[in-house]
Amino acid sequence: xxxxxxxxxxxxxxxxxxxxxxxxxxxxxxxxxxxxxxxxxxxxxxxxxxxxxxxxxxxxxxxxxxxxxxxxxxxxxxxxxxxxxxxxxxxxxxxxxxxxxxxxxxxxxxxxxxxxxxxxxxxxxxxxxxxxxxxxxxxxxxxxxxxxxxxxxxxxxxxxxxxxxxxxxxxxxxxxxxxxxxxxxxxxxxxxxxxxxxxxxxxxxxxxxxxxxxxxxxxxxxxxxxxxxxxxxxxxxxxxxxxxxxxxxxxxxxxxxxxxxxxxxxxxxxxxxxxxxxxxxxxxxxxxxxxxxxxxxx
Length: 298
What we know:
The chain is α/β, with parallel strands linked by helices. It is 35% helix and 21% strand. Strand 5 and strand 6 form a beta hairpin. It is globular, with a radius of gyration of 19 Å.
């Protein structure tokens, strides 16, 4: 049995797969905003999955950051309580076996490139738009991490082609201003709506109001789509992937893939945009399957 864990900003999801990749169980718990409590929550989730399935399994964990190979410490995590912590070692000690960690966007991209919405594509860019904004790159079926472990981190580049009212941009947890993540993550969309309208609403409420035709919410949605298209156009200009797969909670915005694709020609350095923008096949937390596959099936 293979167990995958996806550590998100608001939820931790676990999945158990059999040797054929068939899903046996799936459970979710809220994400604690504390390191020790996060370790305890992951441990409890694994224990619950194994108890329900009646089997022990290998464990792969997708995290919103990267693990430094030399030290085993987490870096670049938007869940700040993970930064500088030996998460893999602490989970291995708690669960009494080796635990493999990788970036959550890499896990998502692997899942969708293997048997999801981008199956068969040579170069795939998997997008996470949720509590944070990240990306994973799959080339010919293999993940690309890079020597700095930041391949695909489009969320921490400046928003391209900024308008005057977008400068210098919101503060980002990374210490800079105007990062793409600070404009198009879930919390960022709510903050943008509040800045423009003065109304404090959650992002799901804003999207629902936009679908109902409310003008202010429609305008917020339009700004979000345009900014996402600008950011992904620079990804295409650099990487030129065959397929971009949208994941994370915001991937559930209705018609999002088509609306982003419609705006790409204005920004991509080509006479025609051949890159497909698609919704994920395995759900907004498809990465939990990729996390399980950090261990090959035996």
